[in-house]
């Protein structure tokens, strides 16, 4: 029985010694071994053997990159404004022995160093510069931290400012300033838009007025040319009509009998009109005609009798001579062709009257001998 108890104790002691001898270090870790309270060695990752009851793994250092976020810290700017700045530090332990024995708590040391360095950097800037110079603050802060933590076996890889929060009153003032600036830019853009619109409208009105003036000028010129040609044609027509009447008068060689006949033809027209209700033919109409004839005998230039027609007066060309340009001649030719085509179409559609339907001469029409 005593032998069994002794064997169990020996086995337990052997297991304890084995447990104290074999040390397993995880990947990306480093073990600090002390012998009788003094640094002995650093254990790499994997299976390691130490002297039991003599060597002791005092610290297990993480060699991976670590991220530490520090709470917001009040910082006074150069223009005496208090802002809250919170930071994020990315660092890595490169020397586990220095990180163990050179500093008691390197995370707390990095935090305090970050706070003091940040106050020194931001204290030399005003609020506007601090809000717009984050990259500069990050680079300067990283340089100071990397230099200060080098002897601790720590390398600072990155420093980021999570936020810079000014006081609420400053935020309100900044919002008002930003709103005023945006309103100013909006007013400037609106004014520029209205100016461009007014310029384009004026240019459009100017071009429209020029085109309207040119159109009115061409219209007036064409209308004046048309009026001139119409007056020329009317004058030539009136001249030809006067010449025709004058020639007819000379061809007819009127005498007193013709004048009396014209007087008889005018008498029915005297009775025309809504105001002439009753018209009485005087019995002395014959004497009146004789008196009219005797009166006509005294008119100069109207003989009592004529011997025959005189020589005809040359009335010139039947068509008026109007100066026309090529465009007007083309237009007149097209109008004449259209009139001729219309007349031809009308003649084709209208049947020719029969000989029996011709109008008989009016037996009451007077005949001049």
UniProtKB/TrEMBL annotation:
Pfam family, one: Band_7
GO cellular component: plasma membrane; side of membrane
Location of the region described as Disordered in the Swiss-Prot/TrEMBL record: 300-328, 340-369
Domain of life assignment: Bacteria
InterPro entries found in the cross-reference section: Band7/mec-2_domain, Band_7, Band_7/stomatin-like_CS
PANTHER family (UniProt xref): STOMATIN-LIKE PROTEIN 2, MITOCHONDRIAL
Family indicated by similarity: Belongs to the band 7/mec-2 family.
UniProt name for this protein: SPFH/Band 7/PHB domain protein
Lineage: Bacteria, Bacillati, Actinomycetota, Actinomycetes, Propionibacteriales
């Amino acid at each position: 029985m005593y032998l069994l108890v002794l064997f169990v104790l020996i086995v337990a002691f052997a297991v304890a010694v084995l447990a104290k001898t074999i040390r397993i270090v995880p990947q990306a870790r480093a073990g600090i071994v002390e012998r009788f309270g003094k640094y002995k060695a650093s254990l790499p990752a994997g299976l390691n053997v130490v002297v039991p009851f003599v060597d002791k793994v005092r610290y297990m250092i993480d060699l991976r990159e670590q991220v530490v976020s520090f709470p917001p810290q009040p910082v006074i700017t150069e223009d005496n404004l208090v802002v809250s700045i919170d930071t994020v530090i990315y660092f890595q332990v490169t020397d586990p022995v220095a990180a163990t024995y050179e500093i008691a708590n390197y995370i707390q040391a990095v935090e305090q160093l970050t706070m003091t360095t940040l106050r020194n950097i931001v204290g030399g800037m005003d609020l506007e510069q601090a809000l717009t110079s984050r990259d500069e603050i990050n680079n300067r802060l990283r340089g100071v931290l990397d230099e200060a933590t080098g002897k601790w076996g720590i390398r600072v890889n990155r420093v980021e400012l999570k936020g810079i929060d000014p006081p609420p009153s400053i935020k309100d003032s900044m919002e008002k300033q930003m709103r005023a600036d945006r309103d100013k830019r909006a007013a400037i853009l609106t004014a520029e838009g209205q100016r461009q619109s007014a310029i384009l409208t004026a240019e459009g009105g100017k071009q429209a007025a020029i085109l309207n003036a040119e159109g009115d000028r061409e219209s007036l010129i064409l209308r004046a040319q048309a009026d001139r040609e119409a007056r020329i044609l009317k004058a030539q027509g009136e001249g030809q009509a006067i010449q025709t009447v004058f020639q007819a008068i000379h061809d007819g060689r009127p005498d007193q009998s013709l004048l009396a006949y014209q007087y008889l033809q005018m008498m029915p027209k005297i009775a025309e009109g809504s105001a002439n209700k009753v018209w009485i033919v005087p019995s002395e109409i014959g004497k009146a005609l004789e008196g009219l004839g005797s009166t006509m005998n005294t008119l100069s230039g109207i003989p009592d009798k004529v011997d025959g027609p005189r020589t005809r007066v040359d009335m010139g060309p039947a068509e008026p001579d109007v100066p026309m340009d090529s465009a007007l001649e083309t237009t007149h030719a097209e109008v004449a062709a259209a009139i001729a085509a219309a007349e031809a179409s009308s003649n084709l559609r209208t049947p020719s009257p029969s000989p029996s339907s011709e109008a008989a001469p009016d037996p009451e029409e007077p005949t001049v001998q």
